[in-house]
Every structure is written in structure tokens, then in C-alpha cells.
Amino acid sequence: MPGGNTRTVLHFDPFPFRVERAEGSVLVDVDGHRCVDLLGNYTAGLFGHQVPAVRDAIVAQLDRGWAIGATHALEIELAELVCARFESVEQVRFTNSGTEANLMAIGTALHVTGRPTVLVFEEGYHGGVLSFAHGIGPLNVPHDFLIVPYNDVPAVEAAFAARGASIACVVVEPVQGSGGCIPAEPGFLAALRRLCTEHGSVLIFDEVMTSRLHPGGAQALFGVLPDMTTLGKYLAGGMTFGAFGGRRSIMAAFDPAQGGALSQAGTFNNNVVSMAAGVAALRDVLTPQALIALNDRGDELRDRLNVTFAGAGLPMTVMGVGSMMNVHTPDDRWVALFFHAMLAAGFYLARRGMIALALDVTDEQLDAFAAAVERWAADPAGAGR
Ligand SMILES: Cc1ncc(COP(=O)(O)O)c(C=O)c1O
Question: Structural domains in the chain?
Fold first, then answer.
């Protein structure tokens, strides 16, 4: 593997540790080092590593076969759970990743509108081939992308005024995840809704990360409904997953009984292990109360870290919503220092400073993390020695 790695966001200099196993919320590396997992697999690990209901569902499914190339009951059950959870999703189809879900949603929007242009936002991330962190990513699929600053209503209005008739869809993260856990400002999503309705464009919420912020997703949290929603990450209990869905009138393009203009044939779309894990996770574990409590804990942690950084006079702030947060500084060296100090203290977060809380992280572990941050903030160059 180039770089000894097959998932670029897990690399950090000089080299990442290699995990051997998880014990509850603790990762153990091949050298026996232990650290509390605060990265939560970039939001996909919401349930933690060994939640019994999900584990039991996976094991039970293994006993019933795992390479089934036929439709089966579990995919219907999971589809019903997903549609019940997210108001805009009247019908849904599954994929193997969030990237694939966004590719399918965009392709669908191009098909139903007959238009070529995809409006996206600076710093947006919708997958390895749909990345807008620095303009158009070099590996991006060759759609006609129109990139506009996030949270800038006049810029979106100007884009629609100039090119509205060619805009098939707007793809937006209600909170930009990879872009630093930046929430949509009040009115931004509502403005996108209004402009898409006025111009006949499809509004796509990429809720691959943000659907964890409220039992009904960020669309319920912010009170704005898109035409299509894409999902992924945690929704199959941590197993491989993606989904796209939306209005019945749009999704009808995939219905063979209605002509089946579009085909989505992926080999593993309905893989039974993900379906089984997802049903157990959504039906038995992720109650509205559990999710709300997790996000409340995230809000508390973010406030606490901000008080610590401000009190110490460090040029660092933590942005985010609920259980998703990211450290920001004007100089990335602060984040690097912080990341390595926390790793040395036994806490693993993303190298870019992202934290995604999981259900199995305890209050004691969060207290210990907050205390480690306080010690570091008091002496950033020397802490931990
Ligand atoms: C908002 C958003 N969309 C899409 C994706 C891509 O999902 P996947 O990595 O499952 O392809 C990600 C991954 O981080 C994401 O954060």
C-alpha cells in the first residue's frame, strides 16, 4: 500500500499507530498502547465497538448466510426504519458508502431535471470523488460543478440568477463535517430551499454525518426539508453502509413497475450483514432519548474545551453541533501539537482535530479527557512530560 495505508484520513506524521483490537471504547495498538477512541470512526462509530445488540444481530445473521444475492426481509425492515426516521425520505435505496450515495443522488437529480450543473460549497466534502476542500478535487467525477461559499446567501442567489436554468441540484451538508464542523447559519438552509423550489432544482442534504445530530436528522434539527437526502456512516451499526432517498416522485425512476428508467445494481447494496446490523442498531439501540443525550454530552464537552482554551489564552476554539466537533486555530501547528499531546495522554481524535462522540464513551473518560486538555493548555510545550 502506498504510504502503508488504504484510507488517507487515518494517516498522520510521522506514522500512525496500528490498532490490534477495541475493548469497549478503548483502542489497543499492536504495541499494547491503549487510548480512548474519541474519533468514533469519523461519526460511523456512533454505537461504539462492541454494542451487544448489534453484535448479536451480526452473529445471528452469519449463521443464516452472508453472501445472499437475492432480495430478503431485512432490507425492507431497514428501509422502513430509515424512512420512518427522516421525514424527507419517502423512499430509499442502499449503497455501500456515503460517496456512492451522493454519486447516485446527484445522478438522479441530473436525470429528473435534464440539467447539467451541480451547485456545491467551498470546503464541502461528499466523498473521495466529490471533494471541494481546495476547489475541485483532482480525483473528482467530471460533473459541471459550480462552487459557492458556504453560508453565503447572496452568493447562492447570484449563482441562481446567473445559471438557475442549468442547476440540476444543490448538494449541501447541514453542518460541514470535514470542513471543520461548521454549522449552517440561521436562514441559510431555508434560503437554499426557497431558491431550489423557485428554480425547479433538487435540494440534496448530505446527511452522511449530520443525521446523527437529531433523531430526525439535521433536517429536523434545522426545520428545513430537502428533496433528497444521503446517508451513511453509523446507520448500519458501524458496518459498511450508504443510502440515498427522497421524494417518491424522484425515486420512482428506480421502480421497474414504473418503467425503471434508472438502474442501481450494486452487488453489495443489500448485503445482509449491514442490513441486520442496521436494523438492530436503529430499532433496539438508537432511541431518540439516547441520541439526544449523546448530543447534549457533545455540547457540554465543546463548551468545556472552549472555556479551557479561552482561559489559557490559546488561539484555539472548538466548533460544532452536538456530538460532532472540531478544533480550529489560525495555525495548523497548534492542532498538530494538541493531537500528539492528547495521543500521548491516551486520547485518540482525528489529526485534523475532529471528535465524534460514541455512545460507549463514559462520563469518566470525558472528564479525564477534559482534565488532560486543561493540563496541556496550561503548558502546551511541556505538558505530558
Ligand atoms: C458529509 C459526507 N458525505 C459523504 C462522505 C463519504 O462517505 P464514505 O466515506 O462512506 O464514502 C463523508 C465521509 O466522511 C462525509 O463526511
Answer: 2-51+287-378 (3.90.1150.10), 52-285 (3.40.640.10)
